[in-house]
Amino acid sequence: MSGAVLQIDNLGKAFREYRMEWQRMLSWFGAHPVAASEFWVLRGVGFQVEAGECVGIVGQNGAGKSTLLKLVTGTLRPTEGTVRVAGRIAAILELGMGFNPDLTGRDNARYTAGLMGMSPNQIDAIIPAVEEFAEIGEYFDQPLRTYSSGMQMRVAFSVVTAIRPEILIIDEALSVGDAYFSHKSMARIRRFREEGTTLLFVSHDPGAIQSLCDRAILLDRGRMLMDGEPSQVMDYYNALIAERENATVEIHALESGAAQTVSGTREAVVESIGLFNAPGEPVEFVNVGEPVELRVKASVHGDIPRLVFGYMIKDRLGQPVFGTNTHHTGQALEHVRNGQTVEYRIAFPMNFGPGSYSVSTALCSTDTHLVNNYEWRDLALVFTVANQNRDPFVGSAWVPPRIEVLRL
Amino acid sequence: MKIMLLAIWHYRHFILTSIRNDLRTRFARSKLGATWMIVQPLAQGAIYAIVLARVLGSKLPGINNQYAYVIYLLAGLVGWTLFSEMITRCLTIFVDNTSLLKKMVFPRICLPLIVAGSCLLNNLFLLAATLAIFALVGHFPAWMWLWLPILTVVTLMFGLALGLILGVLNVFVRDVAQVMNVVLQLWFWLTPIVYFINILPGQFALVLRLNPMYAICSSYQQVLLWGHLPHLRTLGAIVAVSLVLLAAGMFLFRRASPDMVDVL
Known about the structure:
The complex is a heterodimer.
Chain A: E1 4-17, H1 21-28, E2 37-50, E3 54-58, H2 65-73, E4 80-85, E5 89-92, H3 105-115, H4 120-134, H5 149-160, E6 167-171, H6 179-194, E7 198-202, H7 206-212, E8 215-220, E9 223-228, H8 230-247, H9 249-255, E10 262-263, E11 268-276, E12 285-287, E13 291-300, E14 304-315, E15 320-325, E16 333-336, E17 341-349, E18 355-364, E19 373-386
Parallel strand pairs in A: 3-7, 3-8, 5-6, 6-7, 12-19
Antiparallel strand pairs in A: 1-2, 1-4, 8-9, 10-19, 11-13, 13-17, 14-15, 14-16, 14-18, 18-19
Helix pairs in contact in A: 3-4, 3-5, 4-5
Chain B: H1 2-10, H2 12-29, H3 35-56, H4 68-91, H5 93-96, H6 98-103, H7 110-136, H8 148-172, H9 175-189, H10 202-208, H11 212-226, H12 232-263
């Protein structure tokens, strides 16, 4: 059967704040009190999805992706517009699913299945399959409070997808699980798709969007900017981010200031940092093996005897992947004057595995930052590596092999 | 309305399982588990009995049992405990289930029904314990005790109706729960449970008769202690009021429902 399983028209969601809560209460009974503030997280979104299609939803944080999924799922009600759904929806919106920590995994699975509207017979029928798919062994009969978040995720995914839904909605939940389980769940999702399930999928992983989806929708500040081919949409998205970061370096630094750790005497500071591709365009998403250049501008405030620049690339867990400094490369600068600006251009091929990475920078006088630490900055830059056209591989390093297979 | 009833019917097993889970979770982490929900009101009764028995014990006309006051006290407490537990739990029902409401789609009306079921079960345990105590002190069943199921249903309905309204309001104005905790304390003392209405001055007693919990608790006392008919006419009025409140609560609940997750 084909045809639209999901029809969204002019969808909008506003969060309203009232000066007094009784004004909100009046609004339930037909009155229209003036809201003190009204914040549209989503507005004018409309598209339709055919049976069996897989649609990826991309956008920066706060673009309205999760709100859109919640509106489609039905946990949030639209302020304007309509969502029409044909068929059963299963959704994994966030981790946990409202599990009860004192009940066992088995009881929680039964409870969640009940919440999804299954009858006791159906529940009895699926529980063995859930237990088998989750693969958490003895833990399945232990209270949930003894579980790791990965194990909770396993149970949640196993229950929600125990019966093939017409529409499956996943909000980044898969990125939390371990690699083994995320492959296993991806396989199940692919099988559902072949059997005709429609998939709606939010992810920050461009690789997942491009490999899984037929279509991508780009949201930006609550508006739908683009709806089309995943690769096209991702390119546009990357350009959008790059443009925004270029134009607003200052603001970006302020916004992420809370998360950054900056320390040092500040006699030398990093003014700007960016990652650029071969044509010299700023990038945030990089293909595996693509040549890139890290450009760092540092300004000096005070006469300093010796300036060494160091950087460290870390993976998303904070493990160092690669780092070096200009002391080791024999490029330390002697006698730098107050007011001077130095630019470091570090070219290297992105021989990293897919994932998110961060760059930390250090400005100091020797090969350690313990003598004269001018500035140390964590999370100075974040970028994502995606495997767009290489043979699939795992790990954080890309070491392209030449494999000879000899039949002897 | 019909859709809601259908949804409730479809989710009946879920509601029953949840009531059972609720009970099991209480057993899960405390040594005495569910006995606490009986021990608490009984301990309360024991305290009042010890403190007040000497003061009030002799003023019960027509009862020979020397434990008459204890019986009076426990009879009223059975009714009051059901009501106050309903209100207390309904007050925070939506707030407590925030993560569930945000992540899963299910008929939200199930939540108050689960609370009602779980309160009912607790109350049945308490009632059984109370009747056991009655037997110990030599107060044995009378035919009028057959009114107890009806009294229970009326109390539950009144508690559910009021609780639903307050629970919805509490999502938007969290002070409601705080205020109600104080109001419940006051309400307890404005209901003749530990004292007798005839010790109050006339006009005060008249006002007190407007308190629905007076009719409910004194019906429990009438039935359990004296073996009399409950105040049927007043109970009828309470049923009517409860139905009106319940309808208002459902209406409010349905109107407020779309906004609820937004502010949770």
